Structures are given as C-alpha cells and as structure tokens.
Amino acid sequence: MLLGSFIDSASIPIPIDVLMGIWAWNDKRHFYIYALLAALGSTLGGLIPFYLGKAGGELFLLRRVNRARFEALRAQFEKQEFLAVMIPSLLPPPTTWKLFVFGAGVFEMRTLNFMLAVFVGRCIRFGVETALVVKYGPQIVTVVADLARRHLILTLSVLALIFGGLGWWIWTKLRKRGSDSAPEAL
Questions:
Q1: Domains of the chain: which residue ranges?
Q2: What's the number of CA atoms in the CB half-sphere (13 Å) around residue 152?
Q3: Are 1 and 39 within 8 A, CB to CB?
C-alpha cells in the first residue's frame, strides 16, 4: 500500500482507491492501517512533484500565464495554502491533485506544512473510503466517488464550511487563550 500510493502520487497513476478497498475488505480488522499507509505513501510521493515545482516550476508557469496573473495566483495561494493543498488531497480522482502539489512547490510552501496538509487530507479521504468499504462493501467507493463528482460544488461547499468552522473555532480559542494570559493593566 505504501509503495503503491507513493508511485501513484509521484508519477504513474495507479487505481490506489480500488486496491486499498480490496485489501481493506479482505482484512477488515486492519482497515485503518491501509488508510494510514496509503496516506503516508501519498505524502512522500507528492514530494517529487512538489520539489519539481520548487526547482523550476515558476518558469514553467510564467510561460503559460503573464506575470500579473502569476502574482495574483501566488497571493491567493499564500492566503490559504494549507487548505489549497488539503482540500484537493481529500477529493477522489479525477481531481488534478498533482497540479495543486506542483503549485505548492512553485509558490514555495514550507515542506513540513505541505506534508501535513497532504497527510491530513489523505488520511481523511482514505480513512472514510476504507471505513465505507468495511461497512458497505467495495462497490460503495464507486457510488460515493460518482456522487461527489456529480455534486462537486456542493461537496466543496460542505468541506469549506466544515473546515472554515473548525478554523474559526481554533482561532477563537487561541485568541481567548492569548487574552487570558495577557497581564492585566494596573
């Protein structure tokens, strides 16, 4: 699972979701291990297009878009870089995941943040997939993927609401903690 998801993320597309579903179905007790291994392999494999983007991706993109558009893309990416990588990591094929990974390298996302965003997104995706397979059988992966594709805007909106709410909750907790620890004025 680790090697297959590494290859899938690095270069050659492999139907990793199908393989993972089959293995999880055949070994239901350890389904979570397949999800974690697939997430780890995908994170490590994603470093290849990420570093390619860091190495020379800016020139590649500047040949296709003008400098003003490039800077606008950079500014947009920097505002929400974690979500810009994590959300595509959640989505099933045919999402152009490698394009987002390449972009993360081009726009010089920190490697640790990149790896965390991919790992979290892939853990959620693969964890949900394997849990669904164990509960409903291997054919459920196809059904859910088709529904997500048909209702992509709704799917993305729900994910944005969930992660936006989570982000807001964390922000308010950190803000409150910061004000609680501030010294009182005399």
A1: 2-138
A2: 9
A3: no
